[in-house]
Amino acid sequence: MISKSKVQQIALWVMAADFPLLYLGAVTFDNLAVTIIALIIMAAAAVAAGIAF
Description:
By secondary structure, the chain is mainly alpha-helical. About 85% of the residues lie in helices and about 0% in strands. The chain is built from two helices and no strands. The chain starts with a helix and ends with a helix. The model has no long low-confidence stretch (mean pLDDT about 95).
């Protein structure tokens, strides 16, 4: 089983790594598919963070 502190760290780093993808999808490439994928990843990390914290 993964510890609570490990889940917190993973959620933090997934969110940090997802911000550039979200920016690229929404601003640079203006690509709806990339933006939606980035938002799904961010939502999953937010749920994991909500459970862990």
